[in-house]
Amino acid sequence: MTDPSGYLAAHIQERLAGRAHELGIRVDVRGEVIYLHGEVVNEERRREVEEAARGAAEGRPIRNEVSVVPVREPDGEERLS
Amino acid sequence: MIRVAAVGDLHVGPEVAGTYRDRLGALPDQADVLLVAGDLTRHGTVEEGRVAAAELRDLGLPVVAVLGNHDYHSDAQEEIAGVLRDAGITVLEGTGTVLDCQGTRLGVAGGKGFGGGFAGRCASDFGEPEMKAFVGHTKEFAARLGGALLELDADVRIALTHYSPVEDTLAGEPPEIFPFLGSYLMAEAIDAAGVALAVHGHAHMGTEKGETPGGVRVRNVALPVIKQAYALYRLDGVEDAGLGAGDLAGTAGGPRNAR
């Protein structure tokens, strides 16, 4: 039997690509709840991801577990010899 | 010795203008060149291309870039490349460039690249025209990459792409999407050219370090992978007379790089 939540997750991912232009966000549908996982560079993009997902979420609750990872200074070099 | 700074997947837009550049002040003291492995923009608009150009212009060291799939999204890739070139950035697409790094000729060849998959689990140039076009795009690029690498009149060669030439650096991504993240055809071209280092981006959930079947070090420098403004790689020993890049990378069987 097909699990329709798989289609929903795929549609949300498609919308994340089309609207938020984020291709690396994982979408899990567990019961009624939609979970978003992944990393973005700032809070605004985290919100954008959630908004884009909401548009395809069919009214279900969203748990936005996307984390913000700011760019930091480099901390050393790798020697390739 | 050549010091290479590398990063990919900046995905800049007007809302983050200036924030990436703020991290680049120390670059001229740390590296001889900055390599940018594609996806400078999010939506591939010319406006975003201008933001990317402003982040990377006049940094005090040469900047060599390739475009990524995001930079193609609005069909403005040519304009974006033009905006970057106007800012003094070298943009490669199946082409190469040679830089003088303190007397050592560093050759960089590259371009966007494409998918198709890896040995044993890859798409074939067969069947529908859509499938042939998909695989054909990669084949055509890999051939141009290989030619551009071999044509470099350089002491050391580096390959710069957006898509990955190997599976190693995709570890962490769902294996089912590997065929959309890179192609072994690029690794084959890299191995045939005696390359010291291959740099790519694209796989945000991947792994930094890998190696081609021929022993060339591959580094995935996508910003979400390296989690710093750029990664720094020091290629030691290149000032030794007659030492080829193949020796540097510990490769066996590839042609020597020194001419």
Automatic annotation (TrEMBL), chain A:
<dbReference type="InterPro" id="IPR007055">
    <property type="entry name" value="BON_dom"/>
</dbReference>
<dbReference type="Pfam" id="PF04972">
    <property type="entry name" value="BON"/>
</dbReference>
<feature type="domain" description="BON">
    <location>
        <begin position="4"/>
        <end position="70"/>
    </location>
</feature>
<protein>
    <submittedName>
        <fullName>Ribosome recycling factor</fullName>
    </submittedName>
</protein>
Automatic annotation (TrEMBL), chain B:
<dbReference type="Pfam" id="PF00149">
    <property type="entry name" value="Metallophos"/>
</dbReference>
<keyword id="KW-0479">Metal-binding</keyword>
<dbReference type="InterPro" id="IPR029052">
    <property type="entry name" value="Metallo-depent_PP-like"/>
</dbReference>
<protein>
    <submittedName>
        <fullName>Icc-related predicted phosphoesterase</fullName>
    </submittedName>
</protein>
<dbReference type="GO" id="GO:0008758">
    <property type="term" value="F:UDP-2,3-diacylglucosamine hydrolase activity"/>
</dbReference>
<dbReference type="InterPro" id="IPR051158">
    <property type="entry name" value="Metallophosphoesterase_sf"/>
</dbReference>
<dbReference type="GO" id="GO:0046872">
    <property type="term" value="F:metal ion binding"/>
</dbReference>
<keyword id="KW-0378">Hydrolase</keyword>
<dbReference type="InterPro" id="IPR004843">
    <property type="entry name" value="Calcineurin-like_PHP"/>
</dbReference>
<dbReference type="InterPro" id="IPR016538">
    <property type="entry name" value="UCP008292"/>
</dbReference>
<feature type="domain" description="Calcineurin-like phosphoesterase">
    <location>
        <begin position="2"/>
        <end position="204"/>
    </location>
</feature>
<dbReference type="GO" id="GO:0009245">
    <property type="term" value="P:lipid A biosynthetic process"/>
</dbReference>
<dbReference type="GO" id="GO:0016020">
    <property type="term" value="C:membrane"/>
</dbReference>
